[in-house]
Design a protein that fits this description.
The chain is of the alpha/beta class. The chain is about 45% helix and about 15% strand.
Length: about 230
């Protein structure tokens, strides 16, 4: 029986991959992040036909959240939610939260209230299937490079909150922040709350540096706390 050099090399590589995954933290990090991004894309493809039945509707966030619930278990992550009773019942409000990485999506889906949509940068709209499902979920897209358009979008969001009983989730730092501290807040979330005359609910997504670090190429598994701190006017 003849075995080509290429086939033998491929077989050897496949045999070594589990060992490399176990021993090399950087390789494990890229494997996990690659799978995470690929799985999100797959879930988006599944969600599109389900959400399309309603069209663009905030109620589609329930479908998106339901599809995302199992992802944390794939990574051996356990979440603890504290203070969820502080969400104001039966009224619109603005949620403000810190933003560390793309993993925040898991924390958001763990505590996302009913009829709540995030505000996202407009570039997300053009990310293929992910952009389509975000649009179907009623996510509010803002063009940060065009101040006038951004102001207009926030005014429309305030009207939507009141007319359709919608909650809005905002990352007021405006960008991902891996430092462990908070960046200065942009004012948009608070202008939105004033315009709509609704409460602000702060949420802290606890630091997960102990199991995830992009800089150190580290991604293990652990308990992750997502706490609702309270509500303010």
């Amino acid at each position: 029986m003849e075995v080509s050099v290429g086939t033998a090399a491929l077989a050897l590589a496949l045999l070594l991959l589990p060992l490399l995954y176990e021993r090399c933290g950087s390789f494990r990090f890229f494997c996990k992040m690659g799978f995470y991004n690929g799985w999100i894309l797959l879930l988006a493809l599944v969600a599109i036909p389900l959400c399309a039945l309603r069209g663009r509707d905030v109620e589609n966030m329930k479908i998106i959240r339901g599809l995302m619930q199992h992802v944390k278990r794939l990574y051996g992550i356990r979440m603890e939610v504290r203070g969820a009773h502080n969400f104001p019942p039966r009224q619109p409000y603005v949620v403000v939260s810190n933003h560390q990485s793309s993993l925040d999506l898991l924390g958001m889906m763990e505590v996302l209230p009913d009829r709540c949509v995030p505000i996202a940068k407009r570039e997300l709209l053009y990310m293929g299937a992910v952009g389509v499902v975000c649009w179907l979920g009623g996510i509010i897209f803002i063009d940060r490079k065009r101040t006038h358009d951004a102001i207009s979008t926030m005014a429309e969001a305030a009207h939507t909150m009141l007319s359709q009983d919608v909650r809005v989730w905002v990352f007021p730092e405006g960008t991902r922040n891996h430092s462990g501290s908070m960046l200065p807040f942009k004012r948009g979330a608070f202008h939105l709350a004033v315009q709509a005359q609704v409460p602000v609910v702060p949420i802290v997504i606890s630091s997960y540096q102990h199991f995830y670090s992009k800089r150190e190429r580290r991604f293990t598994q652990d308990v992750w706390g997502t706490g609702t701190c309270g509500a303010g006017g």
